[in-house]
Amino acid sequence: MPKALKVDGEYIEVFEYESKEEMEQEASNVPGNGDVGLATIDYSATPYYFKKGYVIVHYAGDNEQILKQLVNILGKPFAGGAPH
Q1: Residue 44: how many CB atoms within 10 A of its CB?
Q2: Are 10 and 63 a contacting pair, CB within 8 Å?
Q3: Contacts of 4 (CB under 8 A, 6+ apart)
């Protein structure tokens, strides 16, 4: 179950895993465009997926300050949009 964090009025989901291997396995299920499984998701904003250590972070938004901080902390997204 993800943890939801509210930052500047927008939500960021954090998925924590028992091991890096488990996280990588789950990350491999997220295609480059950010759709999950067989579902095509109609996002109201651009989705971004980040990963680092034992976590995957999902943010669907275009707040440049939030994106900048996520990239600074987690690196470039592995799926979804590319920050401007």
Answers
A1: 7
A2: yes
A3: 11, 12, 13, 14
